[in-house]
Amino acid sequence: MAVLRLAIHIDSRLIPIIRTQSKEVMSIASDAIQDQVFRNARTQNGFTDQAVTDAELKAVYDLAKWGPTSMNTQPARYQFLRTQAAKDRLVHMMSPGNQPKVAAAPVVVIIGHDLEFYEHLAANFPHNPNARGVFAGNDALIQGTAFRNGTLQGAYFMIAARMLGLDCGPMSGFDAAKVDQEFWTGSKVKTNFICNLGHGDPSKVMGRLPRFDFDAVSKLL
Ligand SMILES: Cc1cc2nc3c(=O)[nH]c(=O)nc-3n(C[C@H](O)[C@H](O)[C@H](O)COP(=O)(O)O)c2cc1C
Question: Do 90 and 81 meet the contact criterion of CB atoms below 8 Å apart?
């Protein structure tokens, strides 16, 4: 059978990947894309004046939405603050160091998770008629599922933003109770984290901090 030969560079070693042509082959993203999304992508503390359009925000969501969640729960909810008036509602709830960052960011997204996510499972997990019943009344499972999957979706969102040429400045320094009351009142959505979006100002980026090596945090069993 014909084979397709691919290779990936890992730590200067060429690792061959061989798949038969009978299966669809996933291509390896180019080094340039890997750099853009991970190696050169930095947490931004300031942005240029370049605007972020609503179309870009929708495109980021439309890419990120394909990231997986358990039982397709999709608990993440988003509020995009684009106007000065909207950002003014949030700024004073941020920790002091984060306030100027929010005030100056082109867009600020509040990423929350809906504790009533299970009410949508009839539509989003229709092959299991008992999907709602798995969660209803089980607060610990609801909280854990919403937080875990909402956090994943927040990460997918940042990866998608970077893939589409935007920079991110995630923040957890804020008064969550106040943000919940101001932005999610009347719902069961809880704020997870807040992320500035725009085109980063390299002069405001901090020095790169170290990351663990594989061996320091991993076991191959
Ligand atoms: C969930 C989350 C919360 C964060 N909260 C804050 C914050 O409140 N204020 C802040 O200045 N930086 C915050 N950061 C930024 C991190 O310190 C930064 O992403 C990390 O040091 C890695 O920086 P790098 O992406 O430039 O390598 C946060 C990052 C994440 C992912």
Answer: yes
